[in-house]
Automatic annotation (TrEMBL):
Gene: TYW3
A biological process term (GO) from this entry: tRNA processing
MF (Gene Ontology): methyltransferase activity
Keyword check for S-adenosyl-L-methionine: yes
Keyword Heme: no
EC number: 2.1.1.282
Protein's organism: Macaca mulatta
Keywords (A to Z) from UniProt: Methyltransferase, S-adenosyl-L-methionine, Transferase, tRNA processing
Protein name in UniProt: tRNA wybutosine-synthesizing protein 3 homolog
Catalysed reactions listed for this entry: 4-demethyl-7-[(3S)-3-amino-3-carboxypropyl]wyosine(37) in tRNA(Phe) + S-adenosyl-L-methionine = 7-[(3S)-3-amino-3-carboxypropyl]wyosine(37) in tRNA(Phe) + S-adenosyl-L-homocysteine + H(+)
Pathway: tRNA modification; wybutosine-tRNA(Phe) biosynthesis
Ranges where the tRNA wybutosine-synthesizing protein domain occurs: 10-118
Membership in a protein family: Belongs to the TYW3 family.
Lineage: superkingdom: Eukaryota
Length: 234
């Protein structure tokens, strides 16, 4: 069996499994993106989250919350209200932490060149302790301030998901057109090689047109995409 057939088999097996997430389904804001990737021969998704605000109750190691050892007091994929957080905090027995987690997507890729299209880093998060051993350590005014920040991040996160989807869609369309016209591919490869020789430290794969560069020039820290390449020994 060739590697393409092996990847298709692996993809079919993974996509046929039950969704084991807490919600049990794909978040509405990323359904279109997930479906789009799963229709492409060279990709499939294994997990995703559109972004969420959480209140966790558990131990803290510095500012890093170990979620597997925590109680989930509150979780929402929508803007959060202060009253909901105050009510949830009353259930806290340990160290409660408010978090905003941005969009994250885990993708399996058939080849390294496919993974390069999806490479994105993420720093768009928020994590703040609110209580210690069940005792509230901040004022309600500060909680209100934090929620305003978290809700703004949630709204910006939705915009970035849309921009990422549009960018990815365009990149894959360009790749398809290039594969259909080998002369274009040869010309592009020649041009890229020439630029790399002249200025290797600035050479990098681009998934957007020049018109999109200015809009997305600061968006390399927007989203979290975890990529795995199809293993040789599968």
């Amino acid at each position: 069996m060739d590697r393409s057939a092996e990847f298709r088999k692996w993809k079919a097996q993974c996509l046929s499994k039950a969704d084991l997430s807490r919600k049990g389904s794909v978040d509405k804001d990323v359904v279109e993106l997930v479906q789009f990737l799963n229709t492409r021969d060279q990709f499939f998704t294994t997990s995703s989250c559109a972004g969420r605000i959480l209140l966790l109750d558990g131990g803290i190691n510095g500012f890093e919350v170990q979620k597997q050892n925590c109680g989930w007091l509150l979780v929402t994929h929508k803007p959060c209200e202060k009253d909901d957080v105050i009510v949830a905090l009353k259930k806290a027995n340990g160290d409660a932490t408010l978090k905003f987690e941005p969009f994250i997507l885990h993708v399996q890729c058939q080849q390294l060149q496919d993974a390069r299209i999806l490479a994105v880093r993420s720093t768009h998060g928020l994590e703040v302790p609110l209580s210690h051993k069940g005792k509230l350590m901040v004022t309600e005014e500060y909680i209100d301030f934090l929620l305003n920040v978290a809700n703004q991040k949630m709204e910006e996160n939705k915009k970035r998901i849309e921009r990422f989807y549009n960018c990815l869609h365009h990149a894959l369309e360009r790749e398809t057109m290039t594969n259909l016209h080998p002369k274009i591919k040869e010309k592009n490869n020649s041009s890229y090689t020439h630029k790399k020789q002249r200025n290797p430290e600035k050479a990098h794969a681009q998934c957007i047109t020049k018109e999109n560069d200015k809009e997305l020039e600061n968006d390399d820290d927007d989203l979290g995409i975890n990529i795995t390449i199809f293993p040789e020994g599968y």
